[in-house]
Amino acid sequence: MWALLIVHQLNAAPGKITVGLSADYPPFEFKQGEEIVGFDVDLAKAIGKELGLEVEIKDMSFAMLFGALNAGEIDAIISSVTINEEKSKNYDFSAPYYFDTFAILHTAEKPVSKETLSGKVIACQMGTSGMQTWLKSQTSDARIVLMDTMPQMAEALKAKHIDGALMDATQAKEFVKNSKNLSYTIVGNVSSGTGVVMKKGSPFKNQINTAIEALKQKGVLKNLESKWVEGNAEKPTHTVFNDFLFIAKGLPTTLTYSFLAIFLGGVLGVLFAISRHLNRGAINWAIISLISVIRGTPVLLQLSFVYFSAPSLIGVKLSVLTAGVLTLGINSAAYIAEILRSGLQSLPKGQFDAAQSLGISKWHMWKDIILPQVLRNVFPSLINEIVTLTKETALVSVLGEMDIMRRAQTLAAETYNYFEPMCLAGVIYYLLIKTIEFIGKTLEKRWHHA
Amino acid sequence: MLNVTQATKAYGNHTIFNQVSFSLNPGQIVALAGPSGSGKSTLLRCIQKLEKLDEGTIAHKGTTGFVFQDFQLFPHLTVLDNVAYALRVTKKQTASDALEKAKATLKLLGLKTAYYKMPHQLSGGQRQRAAIARALVLEPDLLLCDEPTSGLDGLSGKNVAELFLTLKNQGVTMLIASHDLDFVSAVADRIIVLNDAAVLKDFMIDAKIQGQLSWDKLLN
After folding, report:
1. How sure is the predictor about A9, in pLDDT bands with cuts at 50, 70 and 90?
2. Which of A62, A121, A401, B53 is the most exposed place for a label (fewest CB within 10 A)?
3. ∠ CA A435-A436-A439, rounded to 5°
């Protein structure tokens, strides 16, 4: 199976540039149906054309982009990143390609301006340190709340969890267009502009700067602005039914992760449980430690660790699928091993004696005598674990995998509406989980009748 | 056929049996009797190699079968599969040969109607027979039985006694751990009395003694 989960070599292919972005930030980068579009996408393609390089776009959550750049997963970030001093210490920026102003999005009845920031709760998007620095320079007693996506910030505003959300004016304009109760106030001019982010000393820096300059001269940047920012791009219409279908298309992806992770988790879980039962020194100790670490740390952290640290630790780049299945599978193995171990402990020791007295080999004993009984005894707990794991697959959305969750997020970004896509995703997850539980119950009943 | 020489076993400071020696002749039913806690079961388990002796040797040419006090049938398999399974995987018989032989053995033990029942659907006496069938089907040279009448009512106990005599007539050698003296005197050719971790008495049971066994006499 692992042969199919491709492991790439680390070296970037010549003649190609991999660009990372977070497709939840219209009109700069967002999804229209299956396609990633926007100002930055067109810009990336235009730069590629100027340089004669093939462009590969990788979508992931904004907070993951810099980790991916460090890991060599992507060559550049073109995702509306504001140029600032702090980031310049660790990364190279291109010349700016777009200038925007900051705005505070707020409710219509309770406006927040630069002068009234004091004592307010203001949301910023994670990874936007430029905005946070600006906010701190304006007032010392505004509370900053970091959130993952813009639509989340807008929803938090509507729910009155926050007083305002700091974002680019272009964004704020779109939210106000899509929601009657919201309004915005321009709070400052950004002098530094938005730039392409690269690793320190990246070989692409000079090339990209040349390309941006050329695009400016040719008027391409101006055209992109009028197409995307001034709203001349075509906008598809949305119906609840279409949105439901769009999100439901993530089902195979979610199921793939769930199925492969359960398979890996099941196999490893059985091996862990048996080896813990046999209680052999070093191996047992290693497994106990692994299980302890897995149960004691968040899965999201484990996933980022596997995806971003594997390249530097073992010298291979893992695909999102490999990293996701490995993380979720090993994670699940830890829980399955504990479930099986409790099942093993409640099995009479005489069953082992009986098998041994009949001269049954260890392999046959575990396969045909012990494990079938243990599996039956712990079956409801195993179904629970499958349900939990299936829900946890939503985590791979942060790496840009178009599962149910990520589809809902990109739809939320595109439509500036967080509520409806999340409800639709919830319905799909719910139906999926109920189906798994139904299959589990049916199997259980069949066994009890046998 | 079985030589137990100076067998010694202890769990920590607690001596289970100490310097126990005896040997068995084929074709006999020998009872290993003694009050509970006298080490009978542990000795049987050592002969079956489920546990190791601390000192001494157990020499045995041939195979042993074991019938557990609580039977330990495989609860997820039918009675027939309980009996046929080991034939398939340890004697490498084909599935149909194994089933045929298992059926014949179950029939011999009066379980013709129970082939496709699950163990939990059987009575105590039937489970006992199924457990014996599972051991016998592998044709062991020596059958070890741990407390075969415990947990059975008087009538089932009598049936087990008859069954054991039938098996003896077919040439099965048996070593039975039991504290049920009625049962022992009904089936055994010889009795070895274990007490305080050692062999206290070892004698043949003839018609004169049959029915005269009592713990008072045995232990004094």
Report:
1. very low
2. A121
3. 85
pLDDT beyond 50 at B103: yes
The overall longest dimension of chain B from CA atoms, in Å, is 54
Q: Taking 50 as the threshold, does the pLDDT of residue B143 lie above it?
A: yes
| Among A437, A414, A399, A293, CA closest to A64 | A399
> Encoding tokens for residue B120?
């939990």
For residue B30, give both structure tokens: 């020998």
Chain B hits for A357, Cβ within 8 Å:
48, 50, 64-66, 135
And the tokens for A7? 């492991």
CATH superfamily of this structure's domain A10-98+193-236? Periplasmic binding protein-like II (3.40.190.10)
Determine whether domain B1-62+143-220 maps to CATH 3.30.2270.10. no
Distance separating alpha carbons of residues A235 and A79, to the nearest angstrom? 20
Tokens 């620095």 — which residue?
A133
In the numeric block, the tokens 């700016």 are attached to: A96
- Asked if ipTM goes beyond 0.90, one says yes
Q: What angle do CA A208, A235, A83 make, to 5 degrees?
A: 30
Which CATH superfamily includes the segment(s) A101-189?
Periplasmic binding protein-like II (3.40.190.10)
Label the pairing between strands B2-11 and B55-60.
antiparallel
A101-189 and A243-449 agree in CATH topology = no
Amino acid in position A135: L
Three-state DSSP state, B60: strand
How far does the CA of residue B215 sit from the closest CA of chain A (Å)?
A: 30
Amino acid letter for position B147:
E
Nearest to A135 by CA among A178, A165, A97: A165
Rounded CA-CA distance A58/A399 in Å is 9
pLDDT in tens, B155-179: 777 788 888 998 899 888 999 999 8
pLDDT score for B171: 87
Mark yes or no for CB contact B86/A358 under 8 Å: yes
Residues 55-74 of A with CB under 8 A from B: none
Confidence category of residue A4, pLDDT binned at 50, 70, 90: very low
Is pLDDT of A321 > 70? yes
Nearest CA in chain B to A370: B74
**CA–CA separation, B79 vs B133, rounded Å?**
10
